[in-house]
Amino acid sequence: MSSITKDFSRIITTSLKTITPEFIFKNKVRISNSKIESGSFALNLNQYEKVYVIGFGKASSAMATELEKYLIDRIESGIVITKYGFKTPTRKIKIYEAGHPIPDENSIKYSQEIIKLLEKTTSNDLVICLISGGGSALFEMLEPQWELTTLQSLNEYLIKQNISIYEINRFRKAFSKVKDGKLLKYIFPSTCISFILSDVPGNDLSVIASGPTFINKQHTYTEIKNINEVKEILSKNISSPPIEEQIVEKKYEEYIVDYYRNRVHNLIIASNEDIVNSSRDVITNLGYEIQNIEYNLLSSTEEVCKKVVDELSEFEIQDRKSKKAFIFGGETFLKVTGNGKGGRNSHLILQILNEIISKKLIFNFQYLIASLATDGNDGPTDAAGAFITDELVEKLRNEEATINSFLKKFDSYNFFNQHNCLIRTGVTYTNVADLIIGLFQKQ
After folding, report:
1. In Å, how far are 104, 195, 303, 353 from 370, measured between CA atoms?
2. Is residue 428 part of a domain?
3. Would you say residue 237 has pLDDT above 70?
4. Nearest 5 degrees, angle CA 344-CA 383-CA 326?
5. Which helix (H) or strand (E) holds 368?
6. Which of 135, 176, 198, 404 could join 56 in a cystine, given CB atoms 3.0 to 4.6 angstroms apart?
7. Using an 8 Å Cβ cutoff, are 428 and 375 in contact?
8. Domain count within the chain
9. Least confident range of 123-127, 276-280, 318-322
10. Residues 250 and 278 in one domain
11. Which is nearest to 83 in space by CA: 66, 64, 107?
12. 240 and 252 fall within a common domain
């Protein structure tokens, strides 16, 4: 293993620890048996008769495990839904697993269990919501007119389009009885605190898990009109513009708006910015100077590919010995047209490799470029992402046709698996979007 590869391994191992629920609840949220504090927010637990816990998302099971360490005697009961393989041990809070990124029967079944639990709550109780990325698929209650198969078809279509999570979740919210602040109708009249791990660039509360406990300033939510017409569109050929025309905004009832203002508290306790900052700290401690750092990246893989090549070119023109790095945090998106195996992170790295090889770009220094998902799963794979080095690039100089073939098939996982360049973190039990890192070194 080269020194630059060792540096990268250390950066990832160290920085991922700082976004785990264990680290967050120990260092960023202060909880005792009588009080919850986070930043300037404080809540006296003694004013509530019972505490219930609900949650949904990839990190939410691990959040529940940590919450029980502090409030096990306070918690009456709870239900959390997480992705298959992300379950952690708990004592009082029930953990269920369901489908992601496509919702399945368990998503609906266990979401109904959460709603049943909320029927027990009163105005004297506290409901703690543990919300994290992935919640849009894992937690769902459909309007009576919709069927699960229709929802699955919509999700399968949307995640393969060249659109951001903001646009995807706009559609998801319009089909749902619990997204877009509508979960609050079931939590009412209990006080609600949502602990939120954000996987959305910009930390928009209306987008994270599709905003189940958030009401926007216009006090509106989205719904679908002309149900039968939309069903016909979906059954024939899912097409975004016709569905878009059917999305309308409606006003919340005034009692829900008042309730939201006075008894609902949404607290973002970790986000992509945290892992960008912790990575920066490790990188600088290893002797690298930060050439560029970018937060809240939300761009297509094609655009990010160009940005990365620009970073390589900028370092190339420097004539002195140095060590530099760039860090991008956020999320990319792409239109998927092939049937290969991979995710957006490994696809991005394959695009960068293809760009360097096809344009015969020469960089006379050591480098490593990597992109990874902080949850440990890049798309439907067991890898977090992939990386390339200057050594791999030189080895593949004459393999342009092969690289292009894997790229067209969207088969980045199998390509990088052949070259031992997949990043394997295992399940991280957290999720704050993606991290793209470049390390450069002139000898």
Report:
1. 32, 30, 16, 11
2. yes
3. no
4. 60
5. strand 366-373
6. 135
7. yes
8. 2
9. 318-322
10. no
11. 107
12. yes
